[in-house]
Every structure is written in C-alpha cells, then in structure tokens.
Amino acid sequence: MAKSKKIHLKRSYRIGREIIADLKGCDARIINDEQLLKRLVQEAIHKTNHHLLNLVSKKFSPVGITIVGILAESHISVHTYPEIGYVGIDIFTCGANKPEPILDYLQEKIGAKDVSWTFIKRGTMRQWKTILQSEGFRREIEVIRTIHKRQTPYQNLELVRTKKLGTCLFSNGILQYATTDSNFYDDQMLKKLKLIKAESVLIIGGGDCSVLKKIIPNKHLKDIYMFEQDQQVVEIAKKYLGANKVLRDPRLKMFYGDALETIPYLKDKKIDYAVVDIISASEVKFKKFYNEMMKLLHEIKVPAWSACAGNILETQKLKCIKNSAEKFYDNIMIEDKWFLSGGMTRFLFGEKLRK
C-alpha cells in the first residue's frame, strides 16, 4: 500500500470562501416554483464559470423549497420561505472561483429587495480574533499562537500572542488587555491621579494588573486596595504578564470576590482615588453594576475616580456610567482617546462629592 504524502500548507494558504446570505422581499411565485428555481440555480452556476456535479431539490407542502447542489468547487444550498418572501442561501467555493457572482445572479432573478450577507474564510491557516465589535462594525487581529486557555467559574480566559498587538487577554471572547497599548490606556485612567498626589488608591477590577503595575512606582502612595472577582485572572497576570513583583508590594491589599459586597468594609479608610477598570459584555449587568458602584464610592467618600466606557460606538455604556455618576458627583468629564486595540475609546472622570 502506497504511503500518503504529508501536505505542508503555507500559513497564507486558504481553501475557500463561504457566503451566507439572507434575501428578503423575494418574488413569492418564483421562490415557490421548484422547476423554475432549479433552472435559475443551474444558470447561476454555469454563467459564473462554476461546475455543477449534481443538483437535488425538495418541494414542501404547503409552500417552500430546498435545493442543494454539489459543485466541483464545493456546494450551494437554497432554502425558500414564500409565505414571507425570504430565501436563505449558502455558497462555499474553493480555488480561484468566488461565490459572490452566483449570489448576484440569483438575487436579481428572484427579485430580492433586501440582501444581507457575510463571508467566512474557510480552511485558512491563519487564526483571527475579533478585538472590537458593535452593530455593523467589526475589527479582527491575526493570532500567532495561543499561550494559555482556562475556564474559570466566572469566565473563559484566553491569552494569545498576536501579530500587531502583542500579548492579548480575552474574557469570553472580549478583549481585556493588549501589551502594545496598555501603557497608553493606563496613563489615561491615571492622569487625574497624578494631579491630586493621592496617598491611597482603590482599584476595582483590573485583574490583568496593568493599572496596578503603573501605580506601584508612585512612592507617595501608602495604601493600594484592589478588588478582583476572579482570582484566576490575577494568576494569569502573575505567570504570563509580569505582575509577580507588584503583587508582592507591601502596600497592596488584595481582595477577591464581589467588590460590591466587600468595598463597604473600607468605609473607615481614607481613599483618595478610585480606578474602575471593568469591561462587561452585558449592558444590563453593566448598568446595575455602575448604579451600585457609584453609590458605594459616594458612601465611602471617594473624592475622585476614573472609568472606561469602552469604544465610542458603545453609547449605552457611556450613558449608564454618566447617569449613575451624576447622582453622586457634581463634576463629570468625558475624554476620547484612540487606541490601536479598541479604536476611539471613552474615559470618564468624576470628582466633587455631592452632599
């Protein structure tokens, strides 16, 4: 029996491209006519220089058709819902032939009034991760290798080495930290701290320890209180992100668990400045957290604080922090700063406690 050759693929190699499309407002008569629709699919394949090997279809009762075609380049599937004028199309092609011309032909012939589609790079040897996503907008970064993965009771953590952003930490798929611009982020979060020459600082979140590493060199600081819900984030920072030394600083008092439950114990302590370094995917939880957090900061009489409201597209986060803060602080300032990892990012600063 002949030995099979081992295939060595270049990193830039990509097998193909797949389009998944939603077509709305289609002609109900056309998309419920099995023979007509089959003919249109055949025409679309042949006219775009693809090669049809086999085509099967099924007419459903009372309405609806499914068509599946095997191509020399891969496959096409068409599913129709005439009662609502909707057609779902999936086209996967490999090699030089692209699937877009097939979709263009079909959407015209079935009279689609609204077409939305996305594509997937299939079989690529490169790994990409989304670093920024909002409705209608997404940015990705190429991953060189995965350094560490861990599922904790709170989140799925992934530490990766990227081509442009250095080492990046993701929590449940959301970018938390990037070495390339963490210094700029920390400077922005702590810019007011330098002005007031604080002796005690409260850090809420920030388990990657980036903010902590920036604070530690300040010799005038006497006390640093840090609250992180997930201890395993700190363990990753200790092992992979160079946080081992700062975590041993005698001025640091580290607390693990729910900050909202623990911070009230600081009511007898003097806190000059608070850094709220929290990134959350849930708008509902984000709003609830900041309502309670601003109330707590007011109760323990923290005179000034900073927080990040995420990308400029995430308007709800900015609104909920600002609305919560205005109940307890007279001066709220908003600044925008551009970062490679997060795009235009919004920071909030609060001061002057309300009586």
Record the SSE blueprint.
Blueprint: E1 16-24, H1 28-31, H2 34-47, E2 52-59, E3 65-71, E4 74-81, E5 86-94, H3 100-109, E6 114-122, E7 127-134, E8 137-151, E9 156-162, E10 167-171, E11 174-178, H4 182-196, E12 200-205, H5 210-215, E13 223-228, H6 231-240, E14 252-256, H7 259-262, E15 273-277, H8 283-299, E16 304-311, H9 315-325, E17 329-339, E18 343-353
Parallel strand pairs: 12-13, 12-15, 13-14, 15-16
Antiparallel strand pairs: 1-5, 1-6, 2-3, 3-4, 4-5, 7-8, 8-9, 9-10, 10-11, 16-18, 17-18
Helix pairs in contact: 2-3, 8-9
Describe this structure in words.
The chain is α+β, with helices and mostly antiparallel strands and 355 residues long. It folds into 3 domains: 16-122, 4-Layer Sandwich (S-adenosylmethionine decarboxylase); 127-178, Spermidine Synthase, Chain: A, domain 2; 184-353, Vaccinia Virus protein VP39 (Rossmann fold). It contains 9 helices and 18 strands. The chain has a 7-stranded mixed beta sheet, with helices on both faces. The chain has a 6-stranded antiparallel beta sheet with strand order 2-3-4-5-1-6, with helices on one face. Strands 7-8-9-10-11 form a 5-stranded antiparallel beta sheet, with no helix packed on it. Strand 15, helix 8 (283-299) and strand 16 form a beta-alpha-beta unit. The longest helix is centred in the C-terminal third of the chain and has 17 residues, at 283-299. Residues 1-13 have low confidence and may be disordered.
